[in-house]
Request: fold
Amino acid sequence: QDQTVTINDSTVPVPDVMTLAMLSAQCEITTLTAPTATDNCIGSVTGTTTTTTPITSSTTITWTYDDGNGNIATQTQNVIIDDTMAPVADIATLADVTAQCEVNASNAPVAPTATDNCNGTITATTTTSLPITSSTIITWTYDDGNGNIATQTQNVIIDDTMAPVADVATLADVTAQCEVNASNAPAAPTATDNCNGTITATTTTSLPITSSTTITWTYDDGNGNIATQTQNVVIDDTIAPTCSAMDITVQLDAITGMASITGADIDNGSTDNCEIATLTATPNTFDFSNIGSNNVILTVTDTNGLVSMCNAVVTVENPTLGGDSNTINDIKIYPNPFNEVLHINMPQNYIGDQIQIELFDIRGRLVTRLFKTVSENRNVTLKTINIIDEGAYFIKIMNDNSKDLFFKQLLKK
Reply:
């Protein structure tokens, strides 16, 4: 008689550890230790999983226990990947970055690096943009991508220490006859600066420049660096004035018997390329001895001392009417030449009038004066015994209204 024996394993493996310990790591888990279970038939069963290594992020591993008889048990195990360590700068203190003018792409510092526990080498980033034209501090940031950030600073020092360099080593002298003004002033020179390029010079010398001097040009780059350069200005008037004189007539003063002129009185438009300083007439004073034509020299001197001369004729006349005057034609004076007495015969219509008779020497000095009322005989006597010097004298007769009636040159013997 046959009997059927049926072996039917229906019991699943039982994990040896009811709750698997959580796995944790900073960056990743590269190896896994499979847990075990005990099976009622085959004994120890090692768990398997489809989760592969390395595990780089938090996850849950599912372990499977299979007894080979269709009985499968599963068990989970939590894996926590939690990077809590910030990157560490490879260079503890970054060297200062120095530049004359600016930090740009050509001289910018290389981004520093840090070492991260998970990601290895990390290159820093910064929000500071180029070019950098003034001293500042760059903040470098190291980010491992896992929420861990480290920062590091680096000083940037912009220090322009170089003065501008003049484009022309020696400036040419500026020469002018009279002055340097806006029309003939030299153009401001230029210099080249290491930072600011072309710089135009300035000066405190003001226009016009009327005497030789030295201009000091200043180049300022605005960063505290200043260079100076000099330029000679030579004012050299080499052209003498043009002299032009005119003839004039002057009258002696009726009282002093003198006349004077200035250079301007006989100037007829003398010119100079720069400026006339003085006009001088020689001689410039006249008396009775100069009655008639006199040669006078006009001397024109410019501001640089250059001189030109030309001639003029100055005609000197007796006062009032310009020479011997005889308003009343029938006044008679005799003798001429005179010695001790002068006789004056007045016209009849002056009987009863008071007249004033004055006698002047050749230099116009009053030597005698007589006040007299014209009598019926119309004769007036002027005693001249006290007049010693011989030579020319001048007699002047006025009526009681101080009106000149007669003026004449006489001779004393």
Notes: The mean pLDDT is 91. The two ends are 214 Å apart (CA to CA). Residues 162 and 194 are 7 Å apart (CA to CA).
